[in-house]
Structures are given as structure tokens and as C-alpha cells.
Amino acid sequence: MTKQEGSILIVDDDPDVLSTAQMFLKQHGFTVQTELQPKNIPAILSKSILDVILLDMNFTRGENGGKEGMHWLKQILQQDPQASIILMTAYGEVELAVQALKAGATDFVLKPWENQKLLATILSAIQLRKSKLEVEKLRNTQQQLSADIHGQYGELIGNSPAMKELYGLLEKVAPTDANVLILGENGTGKELVARALHTHSLRKKEVFISVDLGAISETLFESELFGHVKGAFTDAKEDKPGRFELASGGTIFLDEIGNLTLPLQTKLLTVLQSRTVRRVGSHQEKKVDIRLICATNMPLHEMVYENTFRQDLLYRINTVEIRVPALRERAEDIPLLISHFLAMYARKYKKPALRIEPAVLAKLKKYIWPGNIRELQHAVERAVILSEGTSISSPDLFLNQVRMPTTQPGRTLTLEEVERNYLRELIEKYEGNISKVARELGMTRPALYRRLNKYGL
Questions:
Q1: What whole-number distance in Å separates Cα of residue 293 and Cα of residue 249?
Q2: What are the 4-aspartylphosphate sites (modified residues) in this protein (predicted)?
Q3: 410-420, pLDDT tens digit by residue?
Q4: Secondary structure of the chain: what % helix, strand, coil (to 5)?
């Protein structure tokens, strides 16, 4: 017999029911409390952490309308909104039990119950409570993070025309439930844009679930996104909700959506069209209420032309398309970003307030930052660590691990020349492995080959 974990409260006015249920559940390893008087429930809840509450629907002799059960159901949920409550009811009260489910009950069992059915219902209720608590924890964490972040658009920083245009678009799109596709190079802050959309939406008090699709293997895709039931595969030790279920009511952010293979694109499209998920190993479909935001650094429109991305999926995910500008397109924001990161890392590494010399700043503004804000942030962190005193007077603290744009006597190289040099460096870095170069750049192989032909590489 498999031993289970969990704390259960059984509330019923029949001592025989209490002793029978207690004996059976203790055999399976549960911690069990019993209570004859429902009026004692609030005191028990204040002292105990309960995974499941088994609640009778009628307590007064002669009563069979279920009003008492409904009353105590509401009382419990007021005291613990995440409670998992299973109602115990007679056959003739099934319709009332269904009303109770709509009022917040987790499930119901018929008296007299089958032991295995009771056990399965309890295990499912315990798993549901875990999921509720996980979502609540995520929600609270995110709300705290939002409270700690200053600025109208969260961690997005910049006053350049490109950023002001972005802010204007966010202001229009965020309050809607429109599906949004965020495009931009690696390191531009696509997830920050997604979070800003969420925190300015009508769902801002609900959870924000971020999923890096590039980090999920094809074999685990369905299990991670849609969930699984116990025994669905070798390592499925218990029921587990997927990311879509956890995000229901809030926002789900699918990053790196351009990395999905065509078969996985088909599975995702099916869920997005029906707004229902089916856990791996289950025949039951669950409705999900989500706001969808996707992001990629890959050229999805080109990929549709090359038949590597489904056109119908692209239509589904980009009701509104937002492009995040590269750092080289908003160079006037570099001083503001550097100032922000200097202050942040000075606090982190307990350094004095650091000042950067104007000549150094001028050189940093000329660098094209192929890794965008992420590269700038890492460079500032490194400079803070290596700095001495309160002034940074050499760009080497920032850039001695990266190359400044090459110049020829009397002129600065054009952006195309810089791009050609950067492609050449990546080809050397990966020893001619085009797939790795394409992955680094966030391009498809055909798109990269066109660039290489353009520059004669």
C-alpha cells in the first residue's frame, strides 16, 4: 500500500462515518482530524494547515436541503480561499452538490462511498490545493516585485524617440486582451515588455507565467505546457498541472516561440484555438482563460515563406505586433541605462557611487552593442567590480573583452561593414558551423545564407 502525505479534516455529525473514514485514510498515511460540530471549523482552521476538508452537507436531524453545508462551505472559503473542500452527500442531493461546486467546492462524494473512489478524489483535491498555493505564491511574488519597481513601465528605461513610440503602443495595447507578438533581437528586453503589458492590463492582479520554449525539449513539451496525470509516463509520479492551467485567469508569456518545430506548433495552435488543454494521459479537457503574449528574435514572417512556421499560428499569436528597438537604434538612452546599472551594481558590490568620464561615455555610445542591453548590463557589472575609486576613466573596464567598431584612417565603418565583420567573427568563433551562427543571431539558416551571400562570406 502506497503511503500518502496530507492533512485531512472530516466534519460530519455521524460518529460512525467519522471513525470509518478516519480508519481508512490513516491506513494510507494521511493525518486525519474529525469533528462532529461544524461550529468548531473556524477554530480548527486557525490552528491547522489542512490539505483537504471533507464536509457533510446536513448536520441538523431532519434537514436534507444542504443549506448548512453551503453555509459552512462559504465560511471556510472566506477564511481560506485556497481550501480544497470535498462535500459528502446522499444520492438525492447531487443537484445541490453541483451548485456547491459552482460556489467553490472542489468535488463531492456520494454516501456510502467506495474507498478507492474516495481516495482518488482526495488525492486530486490535494494536488489542486498545491496548484492553487503555487499560483498564489507566484502572484504575491510578482505583486511585490511590481511594488519594488519604480517607473510607469516597470524596468523599461529610456527616453529616446524609439522608446517613446514603444510606450505609446504599450499604453494602447495593455488594457486589452489582444494576443501580442513581441519581436526583437537577443538582449533587447522582450520579457520586460511582456511584463509591462501584464502590469498595465486588467489581469494585473493575476499571475504572470513565463515559459522559455527554447529550454523545453520536444518530449516534455506537452507535459510542461498542458500538464499530465499520474502514470502517464515513467516519471509521472503524481498529477501535475501545466503552465497553461497555472496561468488561467492571468497572462502566459511564451518566449522563443520561433524555436518550435512544426509538430509542436500544431499542438500549440490547437490549444490556442479551443482555449482548452488536455493533460497527458487524460481524456478530460479543461478550459483555460489566458492572455497570450509571445516573443521571438527570429524572423517569423520569413519563416512562414520558408514553410518553417505555420501561417495560421502566426495569425493567431499576433493580433498586435510590437517590435523592441535594438540598443544601437536608441543610442541616446545609453547614458541613462549605464547610470541605472552603475547604481544597481554599486549597491550590490558595496562600492561607492561611481561616476563615468564624458570621454568614456562617448566611446560607449559609438559601440554598436550586438548583445544589446544584456551585453551593456554585463559590461557595467564587470566595470563596477574592477573599478577603483569613484570615477571610471577608461573604456577598457567595459570593453576589453569586446571589440570596438573598427575604423580606417579618416572614417568610421558603416553599419553594413560592422555587420560583415561581426558575421566573420561568429563564423570563426563557431568554426564554420552555420547552425550555431544562426542560433546565436536568432536567424533561420536560409536567412543567414542570404546575409552571407550579400557580404560575400
A1: 14
A2: 56
A3: 455 566 677 77
A4: 50, 15, 35
Q: Which CATH superfamily is domain 149-323 in?
A: P-loop containing nucleotide triphosphate hydrolases (3.40.50.300)
Domain ranges of the chain: 7-130, 149-323, 327-404, 412-455
Helix (H, G, I), strand (E, B) or coil at 79: helix
Q: Give the separation between CA 195 and CA 186, rounded to whole angstroms.
A: 17
Q: What is the pLDDT of residue 257?
A: 94
Preceding omega of 241 cis (within 30 degrees of 0): no
Total length of the chain: 457
DSSP 236-290: --S-EE-HHHHHTTSEEEEETGGG--HHHHHHHHHHHHHTEEE-BT---EEE---
**What pLDDT score was predicted for residue 291?**
95
- Strand, helix or coil at 210? strand
Residue type, 57: M
- Fold type of domain 327-404: Helicase, Ruva Protein; domain 3 (1.10.8)
Q: Which residue reads 560575400 in cell numbers? A: 456
With residue 35 as reference, give the H or E element that holds it. Answer: strand 31-35
Residues in the chain, pLDDT under 50: 145-151, 401-408, 410
pLDDT in tens, 242-282: 899 999 999 999 999 999 999 999 999 999 999 999 999 88
One fold for both 7-130 and 412-455?
Answer: no
Q: Which three cell numbers stand for residue 81?
A: 480561499
Nearest residue to 193 (alpha-carbon basis) of 141, 251, 243: 251
| Class of residue 214 by CB neighbours under 10 A (exposed 0-12, middle 13-18, buried 19+) | middle
C-alpha cell at 108: 463531492
Fold of the domain built from segment(s) 412-455: Arc Repressor Mutant, subunit A (1.10.10)
Instruction: Determine how many CB atoms are found less than 10 A away from the CB of residue 146.
Output: 14
User: Per DSSP, what are the bridge partners of residue 285?
Assistant: 278
Q: What is the pTM of this model?
A: 0.61
CATH architecture, domain 7-130? 3-Layer(aba) Sandwich (3.40)
